[in-house]
Amino acid sequence: MQRRVWQYLGLVSVLLVSAAARDEADSWIRGVYTGESPRPVLATEPEAWQQASRIADHTPGAFVLVGTGRSMQPLYASGTIMVLRQLPYGQLKRGQTVLYRNQQNKIVAHVLVAKARDGWRARGLNNGIHDMEPVQSDNLVGVVIAAYKPVTRAPSGTLATLRRPKPRTEN
């Protein structure tokens, strides 16, 4: 048990040090401040699931899911394994990536860009404007606290990103 606690603390330390080492330029993507959103850690898929599950198991109100879609690229590609945590609405900050349920009952993962009278404005990094629907306490699902980009080991032992082959088109 004590060994697991030390492993967990070591993992959290690595995440904190890597977050602190990020320079200001890395905090902006396509004109959107993302400095409060964790950068994905490269890991093999089994390692990514293991690390994400470990964090979720030791963090109250946390859960793991896999992101889909293109709205958060290049920060989070489809297939990114994310750890989310339920936080009080009053603790939200600009630059955090949140999950919220929109009026169509779909779950959306976007970055908080501004606080308004009726809630937070959020925006996908590939979207030209912020979402029209605000993030409010009643539709907030969680905040991304860790992310893992699954990779495979190349023959040389280095990590390589998993890529889906493009469909062949015949002329």
From TrEMBL:
Gene3D superfamilies: Umud Fragment, subunit A (2.10.109.10). It comes from the Bacteria. This is Peptidase S24/S26A/S26B/S26C domain-containing protein. The lineage of its organism: Bacteria, Pseudomonadati, Verrucomicrobiota, Opitutia, Opitutales.
